Here is the input.
Amino acid sequence: MPNIARLEDLEFILDDMLGLDELLARPRYAEHDRDTIRAMMETALKLAEEKFQPHAAKADANEPHFDGERVHMIPEVQEALGAYVENGFTTMGFAAELGGMQLPLSVASSIRTVFASANIATLAYVGLTAGAAGMLNAHGSQELKDRYLQKLIDGTYFGTMCLSEPQAGSSLADITTRAEPQADGTYRLTGRKMWISGGEHELTPNIVHFVLAKIPGGPAGVKGISLFCVPKVLPDGTRNEVQLMGLNHKMGYRGTTNCALAFGEKDGAVGWLVGPEHEGLACMFHMMNEARIGVGAGAAALGYAGYLHALDYARERPQGRPLDGRDPTAPMIPIIEHPDVRRQLLRAKAYAEGAVALCISSARLVDDMRSADPETAEKAELLLDVLTPIIKSWPSDWALEANDIAIQVHGGYGYTRDYPVERLYRDNRLNPIHEGTKGIQGLDLLGRKVRQKNGACYAALMEAIGATVAEAAQDAALADMATDLQKAAERATATTKALMQAMGTEGAAPALANAAVYLDMLGHVTVAWIWLRQAVAARKALAAGDAARADMLQGKIAAARFFFVQDLPMIHTQCDLLDRVDRTALECEAAWF
Here is the structure.
């Protein structure tokens, strides 16, 4: 059994839960069929096993280094990415008219899960590039698209996004990078950017940076931010003024260069405006939202990989004897036979596989936005809007917990480098910070998304949950879970209304001081919905006599029940806290610490 990813899990999500056949019947995706998609997924797994996973530990132990002139990294990274590009995986989610495969994004997300589980640090280069290409396609001028889009899509060039600065962090209103307009229509950028993943390397002949900066004379704060395309190498072949100041040394993702970049230390780095002046943040959010969903998907994949490693270890590691055994000379049993190990594995499975299903389901919403009838597409967009902060944050927290459990299952070996689970934990620990901290996502969810469009986004989520509850209630084996989810959704809605009322009477600050708790609460309700959908699909397959997958299907139902019994009830305690609109953190003065 591979410990990267199990295709049967991913195919269950695509086929049984999300109805891939119905999606492939739509004109946009009619060029693909189930056999070709299966072949692509098998190719991805083989490539991940042969080119990505083997150097994951080596890249972690031998991270890229900067000698003052060049960045050096192990050659296996280039080899793996070359194979990824050669097999066309960079083009998966792009439309055919752009040179893409025009795969459903849910399929592309499943394939990326395979590579991310194998080696997320290497995959990060092409993940960022896909986001850059999508943003350029949405907002770039025709001249910029003609120059860079195809090369980003096919992997000839890689791309980055440059937001944060050393003094500003996530507070983009406080960035100081300047962009001076020039007579020829270009801009000259000066300033420094920090934490730029993939910001410098020699993996490709050019790196296309997308940089937030302020044009002098523009509005203050975020309303004065513009977006610029700043290539490492200019169209005439000369080197642009983008200089690597140093590499940041992280606890995880150590194979991905993370850079401090200086723009325009002499005459100014040449850049081209992307989108209208002073609307750069709105343009960049196209890439940022994709990146947030990508962070969640990466976190899910890392938790999933940790779970599979722990599962393999538990099946192979003999230790101890049955709890009721009395013969000390009896053979030892695999640790998976111990009830507490099974409890840990079931919890890790619930978190990791729940997170993977959540992320692939979100990709299916994009498929509906691109290919369904207008009403379905509109509902999908509303749902994706409210889910984006949950998709980013829930896997970053709870798939990370699956990695923690994987270390525990390995016992004393788990925190050594002889096994990959400690590295997977370190890789995943970055994700609660990547692309907006949990606190920022909580503010986005409670402060914006729940109220967005007069509550239509939140209503779309509750409508979707209600539809699954109604379907599950028809199956006697799932009726109790349907009731539990309905009660949880009703409680979440009552708490949401109370918070909205409090924000109207007391101001936003007291409620938003508890936004992270709200994010956890609604995230758990959402993942319970995802698990109930999987349980419904598994029950249908079993009723149809699917004996070949019986163990896998029963495992899905068991994980769903475990999550409902042991995790979903916590939302009621969280709602109790939220209903109080607790002011303790808000009123605790800095000096008291």
User: Anything to note?
Assistant: The radius of gyration is 24 Å. The CA atoms of residues 241 and 269 lie 5 Å apart.
